[in-house]
Amino acid sequence: MDIFTPLLSPIGKALYLDSATMQKTRGSVAKVRVQIDITKERPQHVWMGFSEKDPTLGKWQIIEFEDVPSYCLYCKHQGHIIGECPVKGRDEETKRKKELEANKKGQEKLINQTPKDNVQQQQGKEKIHSNRQTKGKGPTEEDVILKEEQWQIQTRRKNKNQ
C-alpha cells in the first residue's frame, strides 16, 4: 500500500488493495480501491518513475476505472450523464417555450404598433359611426365589428351564480 499511495495521489486517496494484489499472486495487474471526486476529470495514466535519482527513467501506466458511477454535472445527481439529464431537458424545453412566447410578443408588438394611417382610419370609422343614424333596431353589423376590434377587458365575477 505504501508504494501505491504516492502513485495514485493525483487520482485520489487509496483506500485498500485487492486480495490478489495484496498477496502478490498477480504481478501484471494491481487493483486498488481509490476514493475519487467524481465531479473532476479522471486522469487516464500516471507516471511510474523507476529511479529516485533520475526522474526521467520510468513510464506512463494506463489506468482503468471500474464501477465508477455516472454523474451529471448539470443537476449534480448520480445515475446519468448530461446528455440524458431529465432536468436539463425540461429546462431547455421551458427556455424554448419562453423564447417562442417572447418572439410572439415581439411580433404582436410590431402588429399592434399602428402607423398614423391606421389611426386615421380608426378616427374615420368613428366619424362615420357617429354621423350614421340608427332607427332603434339595435346594433348593426358595423357596431358589432367595431366592438370586436376594440380591446375587451375581462372582469372576474364575484359570485358564480351571476
TrEMBL record:
Amino acid composition bias (Basic and acidic residues), ranges on this chain: 88-108
Polar residues bias: start-end ranges: 110-123
Recorded superkingdom: Eukaryota
InterPro entries associated with the record: At4g02000-like (IPR040256)
Region (Disordered): 88-146
Protein name: CCHC-type domain-containing protein
Record organism: Solanum pinnatisectum (tansyleaf nightshade)
